[in-house]
Amino acid sequence: MKTTSLGGLRISRIGLGAMGMSAFYGRAGRLDDQSIRAIRRALDLGVTHVDTAEAYGPYTNEELVGRAVKGRRDEVVLATKFGLVSHTGRPGLDSTPANIRLAVEGSLRRLGTDYLDLYYQHRVDQDTPIEETVGALAELVAEGKIRYIGLSEAGPATIRRAYAVHPIAAVQSEYSLWARDPEAEVLPVLRELGVGLVSYSPLGRGFLTGDIRSLDDLESDDWRRTNPRFAGGNLERNMRIVDEVRAVAAEAGATPAQIALAWLLAQGDDIAPIPGTTRVDRLEENAAADRVKLIDEHVARLNNLASASGARYDEDNLAAIDR
After folding, report:
1. Domain holding 87: CATH number?
2. Rounded to whole angstroms, how far apart are CA atoms 288 and 297?
3. Based on C-alpha coordinates, what's the Rg of the chain?
4. Cα dihedral sign for 99, 166, 170, 322?
5. Taking a C-beta distance cutoff of 8 angstroms, is the pair 31, 278 a contact?
6. Is 56 known to be catalytic?
7. To the nearest 10°, the Cα dihedral for 119, 120, 126, 130?
8. Is 46 part of any domain?
């Protein structure tokens, strides 16, 4: 597995997002043994970058990852997030220094480690100045409890304000062939500052694999059933995207998932996708995407794909991003 650097943090070119092992996607939390095997296989293949958050579960995903990497801490770059869960009793988002102190101790305990490689603010807390939040995180860096600081779904102005307090290694945002929002404003700022972009949901929440052709392919408790890009007929309209990805995959001798990931890797060394899966075979398929080379014609065809139909979140979740 090739490696790259996010603001000085060395990681595998392709990582592993663990969220779906414990939350949101149906059967989550019912496949722990299978998920642990997938995480351990990832480490075997040189996939070092593993991403979780205290809010996934909540807490159960960090516990799962902690069990999976036990005894292999030196092989993994552990990334987790705070801010969606308040430990101070404050309603809503909580990125106050007091909450950060409580949150980091819990994450360290659940992950079975004495330091975190990358610690993200999960969503920007508009009631706590970003300077105050990053100042508290900088103290944790000085104490050795975290190595690098990250933001998630932050807007350009917030990124600049945060970076002025302490260098930011990475910003995590949804970025894929059907979610290219960061390209307009966020990516230029990140590249100016030397900050990496961690791409979550790089496979379009599984849609770009070509395996989801209707809502019947999703379990009854799967969160995607209510997501605007899957609901209200948008899933059917978005088939034109996945059909073109499948066509390119057939020509390139790869799978649709590998094409979607290879396209992201082709956007620059500062892009680090974290596809998620609970299955070893899918893990191996995703990890092999760093060996797929797209020709210029294929990149151009993918670049020219139509925009996805439907917003990527509902109104409440949209209000919490790009702040």
Report:
1. 3.20.20.100
2. 21
3. 19
4. positive
5. yes
6. yes
7. 60
8. yes
* 312 assigned to some structural domain: no
Domain presence at residue 218: no
Cross-sheet strand order for the sheet of 170-174:
16-17, 49-51, 77-82, 116-121, 146-152, 170-174, 196-200, 271-273
132-191, pLDDT tens digit by residue?
999 999 999 999 999 999 999 999 999 999 999 999 999 999 999 999 999 999 999 999
**168 residue type, one letter:** I
DSSP three-state, residue 63: helix
The CA distance from 306 to 265, in Å, is: 20
pTM for the model: 0.95
Domain interval for residue 270 = 3-206+264-283
3-state DSSP percent of the chain in helix, strand and coil, to 5? 45, 15, 40
One-character DSSP codes across 146-175 = EEEEEEES--HHHHHHHHHHS---EEEEE-
State the DSSP H helix or E strand holding residue 106, giving kind and residue range, or none if neither.
Answer: helix 97-111
In a domain, 194, yes or no: yes
- The residue annotated as part of the active site, out of 25, 56, 120, 200, is 56
Number of domains in the chain: 1
d(CA 111, CA 108) in angstroms, rounded, equals 5
Task: Identify which of 14, 10, 3 has the alpha carbon closest to the alpha carbon of residue 276.
Answer: 14
* Token representation of residue 152: 């998630």
Distance, in Å, from the CA atom of 231 to the CA atom of 225, rounded to the nearest integer, reads 6
Is residue 27 predicted with pLDDT exceeding 80?
no
CB 162 within 8 Å of CB 168: yes
The SS3 assignment for 195 reads coil
Alpha carbon distance 199, 265 (integer Å): 10
